[in-house]
Amino acid sequence: MTNRRSSARIAKWATWLPLLIAILILWLATGLRFLGLDAQSFWNDEGNSARLSERSLSLIIEGTASDIHPPLYYISLRGWRELLGESEFGLRSFSAFAGILTVAATLALGRLFFTQRDRKAGLRFILIAAFLAAINPTLIYYSQETRMYAILALLAAVSMIFLWRWLNAERSNIWAVAYVFTATAGNYTHYFFPAILVLHNLIVLLWLLRAFGNFAFDPHLLRQKRPLRKTILHWLGMMALIFLLYLPWLPIFLRQAGGRPGVRAPILQFLWDSVRWLAFGQTISADALFWPSVAVIGLLLWAWLAARRQVLIPLLGTVVPVLFMFAAGTTLPAFFKFMLAAAPFFVLWLGRSMDNPLPLWRRKYPLLIPLLLFVPLLWGTAVSLDNLYNDPAFTRADYRGMAARIAAEAYPNAGIILNAPNQWEVFTYYHQEGAPVYPLPKGQPDPASLEPQLAQIAADHDRLYALFWGEDQRDPQRVVERWLDANTFKASEEWVGDVRFLVYAVPQQAAKIMDTAVSLPFGPAITLQGYSLQSNQLAPGDIVQLTLFWQTAEALDQRYKIFLHLIDQNGNLVAQHDSEPGGGLSPTTTWPSTETIIDNHGLLLPANLPPGQYTLDMGLYDIANPTARLPIQVDGAVQDNWTIASISID
Question: N or C: fewer beta carbons within 10 Å in the chain?
């Protein structure tokens, strides 16, 4: 009797333990996706999502007709914000919940793929795959972003569930309707979803080949439940219905997807980068991932050797979207997020590796090799997640912080220039009042139209803040920046993520005439002819405005930076500005010999700078070695810096 009761308890635990583990995995997925959900600022594309979802349904559709994404995500986000608000946490939580559901869908897919032959072993594979989905840095990263990519992964997984059910169910109409609905939703969510439709058609083709008897597919997974002709007609009807439902948007899709030249990286390099990105995401440096990536490839190959038939669908679900990207010429890192549609299949493929295809090893070393390979996989995952949550080097551009700094300085007559108009949405999400915002250029960066606009902006303001992002696409000739460097004084420049944040002082009249001649030699070829200082009577928070007039006797092959140091009466450095000439756009290697180079520099004074007398020192140094300063000839003596003026702070 006791043995029977013990056996019953064991059987009960064996039934409930996988469910308990699955629940714990979903809790883990929830915690990782909501951890620090609003810690980072929105970046450009998230700002676009936030502002576009503010609009009415008709305006969202109108706006996305000219956007690079279809409208369903923005429409769904519009409804979501009504429930949870428009905060960063509220808007990002839509993706977070989608990410949790993707882990649940991975569990469901694994149950369909892996429990047909051996339920006990199948549950092990399913739970491992779900655990990998829960901790996958790629899936977590996009579950914390107000964009459609987490939804793309979810729809890829759920549509596969419905397709599989339809292929293997007696009562297929419900699954057919569910499949058509999710596939249509996928098409209206992202323009990459047709890759998933290609995958689905390939799977149906394999099913049909098996039905003809010409393809040795796994009979335990694919059971023919209906006449072959009916299956073909139903499938063609489902594809036709998906096409008809998408037909109103098809011209827009063709316009957005066509006409852009593709870029194809070498296929082996692209496949290597794809495996690395799917496993570890973008929050870890590539040089730290060689051995973890080798381990991942080893696990994928091990899974294929252990269960070729059962792993075929996860393999196809991974490979087909990746090859679709290669065929479409979208192999640049900026497009890797499209591969999120393959992520659920990728972790299923990895989860199936926890088996042993070597009969002689099964008794003595049942899982030794995959366990050893899992160690570098988990190490790389841990490093990537630590970077995601804690390393500022991998954070998104901090528009929240830039807007807060401008608001804190509260300069009374400031203006803000955004060199890429698509920064407007994210910046104005945070900056809703105060200094006016000017998105430039609005069209092609034509100097003839831009320069008068910049002149008018400068005439209206004493200080300008500029946020430069994506110059290579929006303003490759640097029309905006060159005009600002020639007509204002750049006081500070810093990188905030991938955005350059600059502060300019606008003079009442740009210095074109030299006020003080000095004819001071710097090294063997460069001469400082003189300078103009707008004022040496300043207040804390003001900007020193200095124009330098340079000349070189010969063409230079070395780049130099100019430094400005503000020194207090005790010899302490209290403010500093380092820049190449022309704000970095006129390096010394481009100076024509014997011509005068007009070079504006600004030095932002600290807001808490005590009143008193200060000296302004300057010099030049090798851009590659700040300690290698050019010698300056001053009254027969050689020194490495020169005091250009005395500054009085009131």
Answer: N
User: What is the three-class DSSP state of 649?
Assistant: strand
How many angstroms separate the CA atoms of 369 and 258, rounded? Answer: 46
Nearest to 126 by CA among 305, 307, 296: 307
Long-range contacts of 71-80 (CB under 8 A, 24+ apart): 71/188, 72/185, 72/188, 72/189, 73/49, 73/147, 73/148, 73/151, 73/189, 73/190, 74/49, 76/151, 77/49, 77/53, 77/146, 78/53, 78/54, 80/53
pLDDT of res. 214: 47
Cα 368–chain centre separation:
37
Task: Give the best-scoring range by mean pLDDT among 367-376, 477-486, 554-563, 627-636.
Answer: 554-563
Distance between first and last Cα of the chain: 95
For 144, the token pair is 């914390």
Looking at residue 640, what DSSP letter applies?
Answer: S
pLDDT given for residue 12 in this prediction? 53
Can you name the residues that pair with 466 across neighbouring β-strands? 417, 502
Say how far apart CA 472 and CA 86 lie, in whole Å.
32
Helices 119-135 and 2-34, axial angle in degrees (round to 10): 20
Reply yes or no on whether the pLDDT at 398 is more than 90.
yes
Strand order in the sheet with 526-533: 597-604, 543-552, 526-533, 516-522, 632-634, 637-639
Dihedral sign (CA 507, 508, 513, 517): negative
Predicted model pTM: 0.86
List, in order, residues 6 or more apart from 271 with CB less than 8 Å away. 322
Residues linked to residue 538 through DSSP beta bridges, in sequence order = 649
Which backbone phi and psi does 609 adopt, to 5 degrees? -70, 125
Distance (Å, rounded) from C-alpha 549 to C-alpha 527? Answer: 9
The vertex-218 CA angle with 216 and 219, nearest 5°, equals: 100
Residue 116: per-residue pLDDT: 64
Average pLDDT along the chain:
88
All residues at 6 or more sequence positions from 633 whose CB lies less than 8 Å from its CB, including other chains:
520, 521
Chain Cα centroid distance, residue 483:
30
- Most confident range (mean pLDDT) of 339-348, 511-520, 531-540 is 339-348
